[in-house]
Amino acid sequence: MEKLIQITSGRGPLECQWVTAKVLKVFLEEVKNNTIDYEIIHRENGDENLTLKSATILLKAKELDAFLKTWLGSICWTEKSTFRKLHKRSNWFIGIFELEGLEKINFYEKDIQFQTTRSQGSGGQNVNKVNTAVRATHIPTGESVFAQDSRSQLENKKLAIMRLKEKVTALYIKQLEKRMQDTWNNHLQVQRGNPVRTFSGTDFKKIHQDKSFKKQRNILKKELKNDRHDLN
Length: 232
Known about the structure:
Blueprint: E1 2-8, H1 14-33, E2 37-45, E3 52-60, H2 65-69, E4 73-78, E5 91-99, E6 112-117, E7 133-138, E8 143-147, H3 153-186, E9 197-200, E10 205-206, H4 214-231
Parallel strand pairs: 4-9
Antiparallel strand pairs: 1-3, 1-5, 2-3, 4-5, 6-7, 7-8, 9-10
């Protein structure tokens, strides 16, 4: 299973860019602890050192849904601004989203169709006499390149494979950038409220959220017990 995940500050201020960088670090630590393979596909640096506007990560594992359930959504950092000490705001939000509907383009030589032809232009006696030029076509995408730099058909084939791989990779990056732009446009304003995770302080400690309400029930029981004792 593969999933593309984007951590983004949206159009948030510098504080959100700082949070994005810190969240990426924590996110990758948990990825490693869960033995999930990852690759940082793209990152956009923030306006200051050690800040990020966004990062896109490719995750690979047999099962990812349970892990991502604890991350996808809005992330909150609670603390006064480290950049603007007089700023009154203390809650800063960023978002983590899945980039859906995007398939990675795999490049395998078995998917390449080769066609040899005679070289054109000046180049000695081999030109127009021997089929040394090579056209390579990547069948899944339809992308093709032409190589006639060398008098050796083998060398031209190697050049064609290299150029075709670069072209197919560029196609994937272009597709990825378009998808990221679409996601960016959809999440210009990161959703606030009900964050999946909350951190606090400059040391970026996670605030535990007890969703079972067990602690609250125990407090109420203790208060009721004290009330009964007072009545007696």
